[in-house]
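Quick look at the format.
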Amino acid sequence: MLPEKVMQTSSQENRPRRFLNAPLRWLILFLFLVGFLIFAYGAMEARKTSSNRVVDWFPSSFQETRKCQWFWGHFGTDELLMISWEGLATDDPIQEMVAAHLTASPGKDASGNPLPSFFTRVMTTHQMLDELEKVIGGAYDAQNLDPPQSPRKIAAERLDGWLISRDRQSGCIVAIMSLYGAEHRAEALKKVYDDTMRLTGLTHQQIHIAGSSCDSVAIDEASKQSQEKLLPIFGLVCLILLALCMKNCILTFTILAIAMINEEFGPAMIFFTGSHMDSISLLISALVFVLTLECGIHLANYYRDAVREKGDSSAVMSAIEKGWLPCFLATFTTVLGMGSLAISHVTPIRNFGIYSALALSMGTFFLFLYLPSFWENWPPYRYTLSGIRKSDRETQKALQKDHSGKIWRILASFISRTYAGIILLFLLLLGGASLFIFDLKTTVSIHGMLPRNNEVIVDYNYLEKKVGGLVPLEVVIRIPKKGNESRNWLEQCELVKRVETALTQVPDMDGSMSMLNFLPDLPELRERGTRAAVIRRRSNTILEENMEKFRESGYFYEAPEEKLWRISVRVPAWKRLDYEPLLKKLECVVYETFQEAGVGCRFLPEQLAESPYLIPIAEQFQQSADDTVSKERLPFVDVSTVVTGAVPLVFQAQKQLLKDLIDSFFMAFVLITLTLIFLLRGILPGLIAMLPNIFPSIFVFGILAWWGLEVDIGSMMTASVALGITVDGTLHFLTWFQRGIREGRGRCDAVIYAYTHCAKAMLQTAFICGFAFLVFSFSGFIPVSRFAWMLCILLTVAVITDLFLTPALLISPLGRVFVSRKNRQTPPSKSVFSTEASKESTVTNVP
């Protein structure tokens, strides 16, 4: 008979271990229900705040952002809408009716006061022709000159390519957005469509509208519509794939439920922290959803193994003990990968990295509270679909039918014989792809974010074909008052004329607009004689008298210390030009024109630092300043220029995107490598373990560069995210490999042990996460579409790498660094895996 103390010890060891007590488990489930309602409300409110403007993507410290803000401070917002339709004649009076409705208040606020107008000014072809005809005709009358052609035709020439079509037959309406309108772009655009359709009797499709405001609204609508249509399909696909993999309704339901709760964390945190959603932030929910599924699938497989071995009485605690470390480490490295995007200067990417990392961290913590609580209350393998309770013996017998171990033993046997060739193949692919990675190009084209059949793209193509280029590029000539007091209005206009003429001759320029479009022809400054001098004096007087009207045009601004002359140049959107050479050419042309006119220029040190191509021109100015300023007829001093607008900002975004891609990937690589070095307790093991993790990103992006495909804002994020996710599989595999080693197995046997315990879950997570995300490849917002198929490809390459390269490294002589000295000296013990493996094939079991 056993002693009483021994019997008590044995009784305690056989007592089922439970996850918390029943009241605490019910409290956790109740708190999750309450938390879901709170976070669902925050997420719903956050999705109402979605806003997309390229200028909002950069901090105010950026040079191009400061330029844009400086420009808006002097000339107002550059947001405008161009409106036209087939058959709109230049003198059609319907234009004035539409303009009157657009400038009217859109309604009343809650107090009954009229709301501000969406538009500060609406210009019509008919109105501008009348005004210009009057100004030009009056100027010729004041100078007692006969115009070369009728003032109406001269006015039409000035508006050609801006408000009048190329054939001079069709007109259009240009509405300049107010600050209130910029805050309510969607409502403003809706008012334009509603008013125009009501007054003209046309349909929505017959009206063509383009402009920067349309771009923002189109991106908002494309991303929202895609999310609304694709999210339910995405959830359904995840449900089907999860059910096929789990083959258990309780496991499927619980994992899916916690994933649905966790997906609300990111948007809710955006709302509660006072930030706002953008088109990229909408991906946070889907990404956290699939990553929660990934962690839940691994935990479910650990639970299944525990039930198979000992029944479900202590299976939950056993699953937590085996699964918390690899799941925690996998989440930690994924958070590092996503968190590395926080260093990006592109606001949507930075927000995506920050909020997705926070949401995943919080979601994983809650997953380890929710799933064990639910599984303890309703053991997944205790009930059939009809509700009949099963015994432990029936449950274990059903789970023993899993024959996947045979497959993994065959694969391990194959790798043990060919590990050298496998490692060499992966190294050759890695080296070949890395040769092309430096040729990678980025793009942040606004129109590249929308499909070609999108309404905005169709309208842009129509208006650019009919009228002219619509992408604005602003050139501002800054003439200081100090030192230029003797320079009259006529000389200043002459300088603007020369610069504008030079700019329009640059290839790909498609029209320009400046103060000169509102003025009569300037008299020739070179012409001598009394009559020419009288004409110049009269012209200068006319300019001076009309300057107040010209200030209202938005193309001239007089500051306390300088006069600013704006030249708006247009480039066609459909060409998708390479902006770098274009911007360099424009800025050089302006200063070369200054040099030819003998204008003294001022080059700021920061300007030369940002535009080194101007240094030769600056040196030429310094060498020839004394000669030219004294001899030429336009002796201005300290004149400078500012080139700003959508084009420079997009170019800055392209440069910054590539820099952020490199920086974030390098940061993620360093942080994850240091983590592996710490976990594996050695520099060499950490570096070797990183090889399978950097392979997918370098290989896939190298292939993109080889094919000449450009990386956009969506593709860029996948590099760091995929690096973090790829480490998940490696960590799970290494965790089980080292557990096998500690149990006395050889390295080949430990690889089989790792295969048996986590390879199935690795395949399931890659299959579900990768292919479910492919649903978003049908999104109407191109960055989301590219993020989806890029992530699917990267996850597919990652799981192949983890199932082939990782075990090949562990079986090869390099794998000895993953075995401690103590375990190296201990001969491998016999195990069920090595015994069964020997029946299938011969595996050399190295220590």
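Next, a different chain entirely:
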Amino acid sequence: MKGYRFFGRTTILLVLLSIGLGAFSQHNTVNRMYEIWDDRTAPNRGNDFTVQSKGYPADPDWEAHSYPIGNGYMGANIFGRTDVERIQITEKTLANEGLYGKGGLTSFCEIYLEFDHYNPTRYKRSLNLNEAILYVDYEHEGVHYSREYLANYPANVIAIRLSADKKKKISFTLRAEIPYKRGINEINTRFGTINAERDLLTLSGSIQHFTNNYEGQVNVIPEGGKIFAANENGAEIRVEEANSVVLIIAAGTNYELSEEVFLQEENSLKLDASVFPHDKVSRTIQQAADLGFETLKATHLQDYQQIFSRVKLELCSTVPDLPTRALVENYRQDPTDVYLEELLFHYGRYLLISSSRQGTLPCGLQGVWSQYLVTPWTGGFWHNINVQMNYWGAFSTNMPETFLPYIEYYNAYLPKTRESATAYIREHHPEALDDEGDNGWAIGSGATAYVIGGAPSHSGPGTAGFTSKLFWEYYDFTRDTAFLRETGYPALLGASKFLSKTLKPAENGLLLVDPSASPEIRVIDENGEYKGPHYRTIGTTFDQGFVWENHNDVLKAAEVLGAEDSLLEVVRDQVHRLDPIQIGASGQIKEYREENEYGEIGDPHHRHISHLCPVYPGTLINSNHPYWVEAVSKTLDYRGNVSTGWAMAHRMNVRARTKEAEKAREVYSLFLQERVLPNLWTVHPPFQIDGNLGTMAGVAEMLVQSHEGFIELLPSLPKAWETGSFEGLVARGNFEISLRWEKEKISFLNIVSKSGGTCTLKVYQSAGIQIKDREGTTIPYVRKGSSLIEFDTRKSGEYIVTM
């Protein structure tokens, strides 16, 4: 467990963003291009959905070989085929009953482009992560064909351009399919029709369960040539001998995110059955067509790149000239080429931008992509770790606006979760019930666009604090006091109000959550079989830990705002009586208070490590408690690295926090070998986006940490990353950092003071530190202990620190 020291004369710059990147560019002259690419089309096994993935009918080529694009509202999986191109479309708000009756994401439609180009040469399909544009290029019968695919967020369309290097060479037939019209059962019957008229293909219908009315349109805009529409043998549009063609795809439903969606118990009344999205989709198509492809491309690039380009990361000096599937195959045999570790980080940022934008639903288990009739685990927002993991890296990797959809989602579900809190307290703690009905808010695990989990079940009441942690983190990274006042502090206060009522007095003046659970743990009998329902007890580490986390965060928030509330005195009393962390006889962090030796209760190699959540994403276990940190390391050794994709990502983040650099990379490397597909999607299995996004957060956590009140650089740097650089990672306090290191020694550091305030930096040098602002004026600093310095910064100020 080690940090990395400053060697020689190190210069630290604290600068404004627009200045900082320019200053850094003097040291890093080339912006690396990242792409997922292949020299083969996605395989075509007939799309018969005969393969089962965890019991769900699935096309393995969709999961492993298609390339995803998305704009938050909808996603498309592109196969890049030259005979019959397949474009599978997902729209986030289209749902059937799904699993557990909560409503589940379901595939919107399939679009096919019949080119009949067989045996192409010089073929390449590539997803450019710097641009969020997918390209297909190949030659056929002496003609070079090109395609561009993009998902434009401002216009809410998917736009495709087909072109060739010779005139009159673009000919194809457009068809579409509404999948799964037979549905799951009677109440999930999906009705729909497809109609072709002139240059427009329209798909429309309804799914009965929520009276979810939907419509999709594909506008075909040829340059030259002829266009025909026909409906005799199924709706189709035929283009012949065009010079180029633009396709614009839009989709929508009658879903509106609102409090009523969650408060309304009757499924058929959650949406207005009289509303059809035809006019909305038609306007979207027409407005996009009026703009034209070049403008759509330009606005897309401007919108996407202003987020994606904030961060750069290089862990190696060269980029292998190999298809991505070959990189994955090679890494499985020899995990020494760290370029794949670098590439997966950038892919994670791409996926989160593509699946979570303001005004859309949050990023779910599968992001914004689903091929399924019944999406695994609904494709929803699971609050026992998955949805939180989706956003762990949003702040440190400089994409805080991707969290805005969850804030909007929270505001809509809040009234229902207040009802849930009251119901829970009435059942379990009637003596603590507020007769006027203000018992805070409580959330369970499963949630979708239509249903929010009520009183916590297998995950315990601490799930509220596990969720509210994201609100404090959003503030702490952005220092957005307006958000804290209007949303963050009320959310934390409401969670504390609920959690304070779940505690019961115990011996020695302690307060313990009762009943309590550690997510998804069940007792195993002597034959290794699960026995009974999820294990219920008193005062699990998960629940106690997240009462502490939320109480601690709400007190900090109140101090920032100068807020007063009678509940704060209760919180101040309770936060010191929780005794959340205990070490067992095996030297482990105990998951349960009644546990003695490790593994006495539940599966000793379980995917969840909920008792270690107070390390990450929590802050309770830190370097101020070295015995706890040592016990965390032992616990992870007992638990093992091999697990589901997201669970390995969590282990990686915890190892980063314990400063075990080699072990953090070890689990990351194993994850890349065992849980990454040829298209770099990661699997539970099946595909879940939390593995991609959790490891993205893990890479950032290995390079910068700030959860202990100071900025620590390269806190968990493995030897395989001995030389590298990054730009734009963010530390709490809203300091944007750019860094270069060579052979584990920091050679250049640039920090942007975006909100002003005090900057506290961990250093190891006792003398010779000098700080100057941009004008060359010497700035005083204060040494705090043996390894910290702190100095005041002004918003948009620039500082040079020489050591």
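The radius of gyration is 27 Å.

See the schema section for token definitions.
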